Amino acid sequence: MKLTLHHINLSTENVARMDAFYRDVLGLKTETDGLPVLEKGKGYSADVAFVTDGAIQMHLAGRDVLAGFKTGQIVNPVSRGHIAYRTDDLDAFKAHLDAQGVPYSDWGHTAVQGWQQIFFYDPDGNVIEVHEVAPD
Questions:
Q1: pLDDT digits (tens, 9 = 90+) for 26-57
Q2: Which runs of E-coded beta strand occur in the chain?
Q3: Domain ranges of the chain
Q4: Considering the domain 3-133 in this protein, what is its CATH number?
């Protein structure tokens, strides 16, 4: 099972302001390749801007403190933001978390079409996502 850093998600009350800041001040570019297709009717419907440094994406997501309640999940990835890793074997990674005694929320395909996602907390309460892209 391989993990690679895929994106950093920051939650915000003003997506346009954050998008402008990261493009204008930090010089990031608008990401156009490999963007997730958001499932806006399944519990999270806020706007998201996508920027990149050319290697790692940043998802600038509208904060939604109720997304966990709307989807029936304990871990809410858009209340404070999260870091995300992509894996080639999510089932193996879930088995690894189970063996380590780390609880997680399995969002499945609830938020992003074609991505199987889980979310869990690190010891300080930061949210971590691990996802696998479903084969075509």
A1: 788 999 888 777 777 777 778 899 999 999 99
A2: 3-12, 29-30, 37-38, 48-52, 57-62, 81-87, 105-108, 112-113, 115-121, 127-133
A3: 3-133
A4: 3.10.180.10
